[in-house]
Amino acid sequence: MATYDYDVLYLGSGHGTFDGAIPLAQTGKKVGIIESRLIGGTCPNRGCNAKIILDAPVELQRASERLKGIVDPVPTINWKENVEHKQEVIDKLPVMISGAIESAGIDIIKGYGTLLDAHTIEVDGQPHTAEKLVISTGLRPNKLDIPGTELSHDSEDFMNLKKLPERIAIIGSGYISLEFATIANAAGSKVTVFMHGDQALRQFNQDYVTAVVDDLERRGVKFVKFAGVSAFEKQDKEFVVKYADGQQKVDWILDATGRIPNVENIGLDKVGVKYNKHGIEVNDYLQTTVDNIYASGDVIDKTQPKLTPTAIFESMYLTNLLSGQTDKPIDYPVIPSVVFTSPRIAKAGVSVEEAKQKGYKIVENHLTDEWYRQIDKQDLVENAFIYNEENQIVGVTEVSERADDVINAVLPLIEFGLSDEQIGRLVYLFPSITASTLSHRK
Ligand SMILES: Cc1cc2nc3c(=O)[nH]c(=O)nc-3n(C[C@H](O)[C@H](O)[C@H](O)COP(=O)(O)OP(=O)(O)OC[C@H]3O[C@@H](n4cnc5c(N)ncnc54)[C@H](O)[C@@H]3O)c2cc1C
Ligand SMILES: NC(=O)c1ccc[n+]([C@@H]2O[C@H](COP(=O)([O-])OP(=O)(O)OC[C@H]3O[C@@H](n4cnc5c(N)ncnc54)[C@H](O)[C@@H]3O)[C@@H](O)[C@H]2O)c1
């Protein structure tokens, strides 16, 4: 039998890898991780963690704005300090994650890996072999294929800006666009969002999205629908966005038109791992078209949302599969999702749209005047609970400043299909967002 350097070798070190690789090594497997950039991947270093730190002062500013007269004055955001604070907090993350990886006895191999054959990944001319490989190379920002595309920037560049540009153009109207439009607008930049069509955040309840977009418009963000952005140009110190109805001068351009899988130039074709423009093709065991090669995280072509909780769940599933603790296919739980605008929009399970198609019961609540939400004078609180034929909650969505907490609170009720009687036995702290929200569930 062939001997390899490792039992399992991961390509990429994000959440699709490290959450599962650490417990896998603790089962006694010899594990290696190859990473070309910062350990921990996108989420801690240039995604979720970084973004939510930049957003914290926006939350504070919004709350002070609503409590004007009680809390004065409404704070302004010091961009430079905010970015420095973000950096100080996130700089510790790759160090901490590397420490946890190495304490578990895992080798970290720094460099860009390319598959040579089904058991070998080469880094800087050095082959590393393993019985099983896990490809977890994530996504990278899309770049519009238009003249002047090199003049635009990505989400990572935005979060590292030392000075906030006076005028920012954001292309696209998905998660990154709306979250960053919120942050830049609150910090004082003039933002224009160039939309592909006439709908932002298409995966979310459109009534809630419209309310958030209207609020951003009132705050000065301009939305250009069916923009048909065709070119970027540089004129002296300014940049010009050319679009269907004309052109607009700005100081900085953010291309937020989606993220694409890192599947090229890593040797997948050579070894026969199939992929397409959505990512690597896997079966229900996260196994690729080559038996001993698996994939995990955002790089997989999947219907599940490409988010950190999904990547963590997949890497933990592979821990169990590759250590022999399960031989069952992956069984995804309900994966919640939130867009960190202010107010936020969050959801889990069956959507209102699907519920209408299926004839499910929909309980809609307008909770702006509810006493708990009036503590900080929230001016937009709407939610919807979806019930199936057995009267179990199968979906929930909310727009409010606390929408993320609400969805987390309702999630176990959906995932475990609790009956009304069982939910009645859950006694929550009072006063609290969970107690307040669940009292309006039916
Ligand atoms: C701006 C932004 C904000 C986000 N906010 C949220 C959020 O609030 N909540 C949420 O759930 N999700 C959020 N996400 C998504 C989240 O970051 C991803 O779902 C998550 O990071 C996926 O983990 P992963 O391990 O699959 O990929 P990644 O974290 O991208 O890790 C892949 C790693 O592989 C490395 N790599 C690639 N190719 C090679 C190679 N050939 N050799 C060596 N190394 C290689 C890369 O350098 C990278 O470190 C956000 C993403 C972005 C961009
Ligand atoms: N809160 C979160 O969980 C969070 C936050 C940020 C990012 N993310 C992750 O990162 C991924 C990428 O975020 P994103 O906002 O870049 O992608 P996205 O898929 O959410 O949005 C892309 C946007 O670009 C638009 N677009 C596509 N092609 C275009 C074109 N040619 N011209 C103009 N617009 C075009 C789309 O219509 C859409 O509005 C998300 O899907 C998500 O997985 C998650």
What's the number of extended β-strand segments?
Answer: 23
User: What share of residues are in beta strands?
Assistant: 15-25%
| Weakly predicted, low-confidence segments | none
> Could you say what the CATH topology of the largest domain is called?
FAD/NAD(P)-binding domain
Terminal-residue CA separation: 62 Å
Question: What spatial form do the alpha-carbon principal axes imply?
Answer: globular
User: In the CATH hierarchy, what is the superfamily of the largest domain?
Assistant: FAD/NAD(P)-binding domain
Count the domains. 3
- Give the second-level CATH assignment, the architecture of the largest domain: 3-Layer(bba) Sandwich
Query: Oligomer, anyone?
Result: single chain
Number of helices: 13
Radius of gyration in whole Å, from Cα? Answer: 23 Å
Give the helix/strand class: alpha/beta
The biggest beta sheet reads:
7 strands, mixed
Task: Assign the CATH class of the largest domain.
Answer: Alpha Beta
Nearest-integer average pLDDT = 97
Bound molecule types = flavin-adenine dinucleotide, nicotinamide-adenine-dinucleotide
In percent, how helical is the residue content? 25-40%
